[in-house]
Design a protein that fits this description.
seven-stranded mixed beta sheet; alpha/beta; 6 helices; globular; about 190 residues; Rossmann fold
Length: about 190
């Protein structure tokens, strides 16, 4: 069994895709813990409904968060940490100790880096009149969205697409791609 920890800051739809894939036996994995920086994140409710332990980050300073998470995670068996809509930078203690992947809603190196997340990415894609966008899964390093790319999936951006249209296409591609990557890494 491949042991996962998932970090999420928001609604947890990507987390739900992982949970569903495990329940359908598409992934031979177990999510041991879901971590969030927000007590309001619906991802925590999704985890609780699935019987998965949750943890809410208490500290606000980056260096303290890194130490807090190192202490928390030391209690779990972890093969892979998945950032699934997690909006904070991961500290060096975790980057150095664990294999961590992130799913990002653009084709890196375009539309990425600090401050580029969620709808901000899709709005930038539409404003730039891009014909293609997509999703990227990459390894996490000490810089925002600069780790080695594992896989990218392209989606077509039509001339009349809004940022919401692009977001919906990317979200669908992102979930499929992430499950495929976890499947490969867990073998």
């Amino acid at each position: 069994m491949y042991n996962l920890v998932v970090f999420a800051s928001g609604g947890g739809t990507t987390l739900q895709a992982i949970i569903d894939s495990i329940e359908k036996k598409e992934l031979d994995c177990k999510i041991n813990l879901v971590i969030s920086n927000s007590s309001d994140a619906y991802a925590l409710e999704r985890a609780k409904k699935a019987g998965i332990e949750t943890y809410i980050i208490q500290n606000k300073k980056s260096s303290q968060i890194d130490l807090e998470l190192e202490n928390c995670l030391s209690q779990y068996s972890i093969d892979l940490i998945v950032l699934a809509g997690y909006l904070k930078k991961i500290g060096p203690k975790l980057v150095d100790k664990y294999t961590i992947i992130n799913t990002h809603p653009s084709l890196i190196p375009k539309f990425c880096g600090k401050g580029m997340y969620g709808m901000k990415v899709h709005e930038a894609v539409v404003e730039a009149h891009e014909k293609v966008s997509g999703a990227t899964v990459h390894f996490v390093n000490n810089q925002y969205d600069e780790g080695n790319i594992i896989r990218q999936t392209k989606i077509e951006v039509l001339p009349n697409d809004t940022a919401n249209d692009v977001a919906e296409k990317v979200k669908a591609a992102e979930k499929i791609q992430l499950i495929e990557v976890i499947k490969i890494l867990s073998k």
